[in-house]
Amino acid sequence: MLGTWKTGEIHDIHQDMSQLTVKVITKVLFGVDITQMALEIGDALESILLQYYHKAQTSFLLPSWVPTPGNLRANRAIEYLNKLVIDIIEQRRESPQDDLLSSLLLAQDEDGSQLSMKELRDEVMTLLLAGHETTATALTWTLMLLAQNPEVAQKLASETQSVLEGRAPGITDLPRLPYTEMVLKESMRLYPPAWALSREVAQDCMIGPYFLKRGTSVFFSQWVVHRDTRFFDNPEQFLPERWQDNLELNLPRCAYFPFGAGPRGCIGQAFSIMEATLILAMILKQNYFKLVPDQAIELLPSITLRPKYGIKMILESSNL
Ligand code: HEM
């Protein structure tokens, strides 16, 4: 990707990051290279997320089979993704490899039977969608924040350039890129890719002064908690340095929870931090971004927190 970037070009950085992370996740987990389809997958996902956002706003008034233009677009997108995922599964069935998908093909249900095609499809779809859109959004907001805070970008570029000295980063470099990781943490505090989660109450209970009846839906939002002054000084400010000296260990549990918590916490946390740190280091070692002036940057709080109109940036060579 970086090889195709040229100084002075304008890029929608959200589109670039989505295409990149979809390529990474399909290659890493399923051993397939879907470079050609990365754009179509991004578009399909966008139609589904837009429709989900629209439905959440209109309280799910109409079921998804009603042929509104949005429903039709989203249903077509779901069909496209289902077919793509089934093709990936069939491809791997014919030629097993040493990857996650081949292990899923051998996996067994509680009753000892093999997973059905629908179960396999659902597993692969979850990993494909949960495994790329979140990381892409995290990288997008990070690059925006860096463009808005040039002194942080400068410090980050100094770290990557002095550690890497021009070469590509590898896994052993991770411990030597602490500032890069702090930048990511701080970006996910202000712009958590998963901005709200929900649970259904399993049994009648009290939480603080509130009585919650079994079956009630409860929503809790990273966006809100991460900006609470009880836990973070100057919460609206982008300050990666706040994470030095182990802030995370000193916070109450769930004051910072971009990856959720408990038994349903994210299984991709370590992977995505590794991936995002390496991508950021790789980008920042030779590039610098400016935001295209006067563009509208708005939030689209769908399942993930996306920029509604993408984020346009002008590429420049790093001047360090
Ligand atoms: C910055 C990147 C990521 C963020 C912010 C993120 C966030 C989350 C959150 C908040 C949850 C919990 C949902 C809930 O409690 O209802 C979750 C679950 C999950 N994540 Fe991630 N995630 C990221 C990357 C990934 C990656 C790379 C993968 C796959 C390789 C992945 C796979 C999953 C799966 C399978 C679950 C469901 C776990 C379960 O229900 O047992 N995620 N993620």
Q: What is the percentage of strand-forming residues?
A: 5-15%
**Helical element count?**
11
Uncertain stretches: none
**Euclidean distance between termini CA atoms:** 22 Å
Strand order of the largest sheet: 1-9-6
For the secondary structure, the number of strands is 9
Structural shape: globular
Order of helices and strands: EHHHHHHHHEEEEHHHEEEE
* Rg computed from alpha carbons, rounded to a whole number of angstroms: 21 Å
Based on secondary structure, the structural category is: mainly alpha
User: Ligands in the structure?
Assistant: protoporphyrin IX containing FE
Helix content: 40-55%
Largest sheet: 3 strands, antiparallel
CATH architecture: Orthogonal Bundle
Q: What is the arithmetic mean of pLDDT? A: 90
The first-level CATH class name: Mainly Alpha
State the CATH topology.
Cytochrome p450
Name the CATH superfamily classification: Cytochrome P450
What's the domain count? 1
How would you characterize this protein structure?
- This protein is mainly alpha-helical.
- Helix content is 48%, strand content 11%.
- The protein is built from eleven helices and nine strands.
- The strands form four sheets. The protein has a three-stranded antiparallel β-sheet.
- Strand 3 and strand 4 (210-212) form a beta hairpin.
- Helix 1 (13-30) crosses helix 2 (38-57).
- The longest helix has 26 residues, at 69-94.
Key structural traits:
single chain; 320 residues; binds protoporphyrin IX containing FE; 48% helix; 11 helices; Cyt_P450_CS; monooxygenase; mainly alpha; metal-binding; heme; Cytochrome p450; three-stranded antiparallel β-sheet
